[in-house]
From TrEMBL:
GO molecular function: ATP binding; glutamate-cysteine ligase activity
Recorded family membership: Belongs to the glutamate--cysteine ligase type 2 family. YbdK subfamily.
Any single GO BP term: modified amino acid biosynthetic process
Reactions it catalyzes: L-cysteine + L-glutamate + ATP = gamma-L-glutamyl-L-cysteine + ADP + phosphate + H(+)
Catalytic EC class: ligase
Name this polypeptide is given: Putative glutamate--cysteine ligase 2
Enzyme Commission code(s) on record: 6.3.2.2
Alphabetized Pfam families for the sequence: GCS2 (PF04107)
Length: 379
């Protein structure tokens, strides 16, 4: 999907200076009533219990959401340990507070509670964005270390074509209010309504990035930089780039896979930037169409190649991504593990596939139980 200068005879290779950057993951979870499966509006109580267990759980917009965060990790094995730890402690805090923790992009059962977490920022957000705030959506945010903001802005351009493939792979939100929406990632469809959501524009520099953000602040499409909801954004206070396109993955191992692919994609893009390899800007309308198709089909249908515009079986797009970033995965020591994990997901299906399979063959209670068990599964 990335086009390079046809006159450049050099094969693609990683530069010696490309080290293994740190990676950290934030995960958002739904809290549900363990008896009914309906959203449980008690994130404040869960966070208070979390403090006694030694975990800092962040409050989200809705009172039935909670967020965890790993520290920066240098290896995927370290990241896996941290993800299993944070999920386990968050689930324990939820249980103690009378709730159950689910790794799913939207609440599967019950009406969405119109209950905003009572903190000044969220009250301001609800007032400004009005009914857009009446939603519960849970994503996965992967932070990768890049110390140079101009390089980070250029890296964004190289990531844009691959964002729909990542969305399709991680899709984990097909069911809401007990019904199949027809979309593998209903979270994405809800999220795309926000004025600052979606892929970033093709960026000329960090200064262009900052000027665009300033304009959005002036227009009040965002009220602060934390409300910049692009699927790739530069951190306002850390030397990292943040990729936010994925639903919260069904399992910790799925989250490790997504993080490993994203880090390798960033490393690959970083190398391309330093080798002055250009990337053709993807037409915004085509990229939007590719997003929509990825959200609808997930892994079980077709995706749109954002460069050619051709329909391609979704697994083929994912395998193209794997081939594209293989040198970086080998560089970070993650290729064999990522290859095996990816083929496991392609064989059994992602979170969306598993949710649909369970609801088709079982009851809504079976669905909640499956998601709860999968949230804490160690494979």
């Amino acid at each position: 999907m990335v086009s390079t200068d046809p006159g450049d005879p050099e094969p693609f290779r990683l530069d010696d200076r490309d080290l293994c950057p740190s990676v950290g993951v934030e995960e958002e979870f739904v809290l549900v009533d363990p008896a009914t499966g309906a959203p449980f509006p008690g994130n404040t109580a869960v966070a208070q219990v979390g403090k006694t267990l030694g975990i800092d759980l962040q409050l989200e917009l809705s009172t039935c959401q909670i967020e965890t965060a790993t520290p920066p990790c240098t290896s995927t094995s370290e990241l896996r340990t941290e993800l299993l730890r944070t999920r386990r402690l968050a689930a324990a805090a939820a249980t103690t507070a009378g709730a159950r923790l689910l790794a799913t992009g939207v609440p599967p059962l019950g009406p969405i509670p119109r209950s905003i977490t009572d903190v000044p920022r969220y009250r301001r957000l609800a007032e400004h964005y009005r009914q857009l705030g009446d939603q519960v959506i849970c994503g996965c945010h992967v932070h990768v270390g890049i110390p140079d903001r101009d390089t980070a802005a250029a890296v964004c351009n190289h990531l844009r074509p691959w964002l729909p493939a990542l969305l399709a792979l991680a899709a984990n939100s097909p069911i809401t209010d007990g019904r199949d929406t027809g979309y593998a990632s209903w979270r994405h469809m809800l999220w795309s309504r926000w004025p600052s959501a979606g892929p970033p524009p093709h960026l000329r520099s960090a200064a262009h990035y900052d000027a665009t953000v300033t304009e959005m602040l002036d227009h009040e499409t965002i009220l602060d930089t934390a409300m910049l909801y692009w699927d790739v954004r530069l951190s306002a206070h850390l030397p990292t780039i943040e990729i936010r396109v994925a639903d919260v993955p069904a399992t910790a191992d799925d989250a490790v896979l997504i993080a490993a692919l994203i880090r390798a994609l960033v490393v690959t893009a970083h190398t391309a930037v330093h080798q002055v390899r250009t990337v053709t800007p993807v037409d915004p309308h085509r990229l939007r169409a590719a997003y929509w198709r990825a959200a609808r089909d997930g892994l079980d249908g077709h995706g749109i190649d954002p460069v050619t515009g051709h329909l391609v079986p979704a697994p083929d797009l994912i395998l193209r991504l794997l081939d594209h970033i293989r040198p970086a995965l080998e560089h970070t020591g993650d290729y064999q593990q990522a290859h095996q994990a990816l083929h496991t997901v392609l064989a059994r299906g992602n979170g969306a596939t598993q949710q649909r399979r369970t609801l088709t063959t079982g009851t809504p209670h079976d669905l909640i139980d499956m998601i709860g068990r999968t949230t804490l599964a160690e494979t």
